[in-house]
Design goal:
Layout: E1 3-9, H1 17-25, E2 31-38, H2 44-55, E3 59-63, H3 82-96, E4 101-105, E5 109-111, H4 115-121, E6 130-139, H5 143-150, H6 155-166, E7 171-175, H7 176-179, H8 192-202, E8 206-216, H9 224-241, H10 246-257, H11 259-264, H12 268-271, H13 273-284, H14 286-311, H15 320-329
Parallel strand pairs: 1-2, 1-4, 2-3, 6-8
Antiparallel strand pairs: 4-7, 5-8, 6-7
Helix pairs in contact: 6-8, 8-15, 9-14, 10-14, 13-14
Length: 331
Amino acid sequence: MGVVLSMITKDSHKLGWVFTDALKSSLQVPYSTLILVDDSATDATRQLVKDFTNNYNKELIILGSRDITKFRAGMSDAKPTRAVARQVAIDFFLQSMSDEWLMFLDDDAVLNDGWWGWVVKNQVLEDPSVGEVWGVNYDVDPAREKAMKALGIDLVDYLVRKFEARGGTHDTLYRRDAISGVFIPPELHVYEDAWLHHFVRCRGWNYVVNPVGVRHYSPWRIDMKKEMERLRLGIRVAVRYGIVEYETMQEMKQAQHKKVLAYLSLLRPILGLPLQIYMRARAYGLKDGFKDAIKRQYLKLWFRYQVLRTLRELQHTPDPCKNILATQQGI
């Protein structure tokens, strides 16, 4: 039942104490080896992790996205996307290690105390049907939870539904056999975690939700150009593979069956602006929070419009199981 920890990093040292706390929180997990797939511009992140593993007597394996050429023939021109980085970690784990479980932890996700204790107490890893264990990604600031509670929405239930549609690797365990044979399309700089989740699920493995979860310090400063490109990719992926966000799935169905309701959904980002301003202002101050809220809601509006434009000619909602498994078989 051995566990190997893996982290995908890129200039993560810039996160400061958040990255340090993420590393320290991992010590509750009984791993002896950390696979670091790092594509940083400098050696600062690698050195920080080296110091950490030396201090706590952990073996450190350092790889980069380009190292996929060691495991996948013909991939020498692969761009260093998160999909490629994640594949490097998985390939190394499967081919060079004998442990049963691979755990991914994001550089901005701090495991809550008792994360591993809950897994042990509930004998999760002893269940041979379980292929994936995911921890709830709690917000650092409680504003969203309070606002959703006032609207009669349970935040944890909402986050679990999002995971079921979208996956997530910020604090996730994968059984060796459950991910054996996976090949994540290199184009997936986002949604590589969704690919993993559906690959495991669609092959008959069960997943378990760990309610202890993490405190997720998601970066809040938005690069509009990069974010729009990410969202465009999200739409292409939704059409090609059926990997979609929870809300996008609802909008896709509306776009296909209830055109008027689908276009009325464009009002949601506008109506949600006051709540976003409130939450962001609490977390980052009025000036920065206001700007960030405007950007986020504009992106949601733009994205929903693009989804409707792209999907209005589809005859059915793409099935992720059918498409992902068919893609795997074609490799």
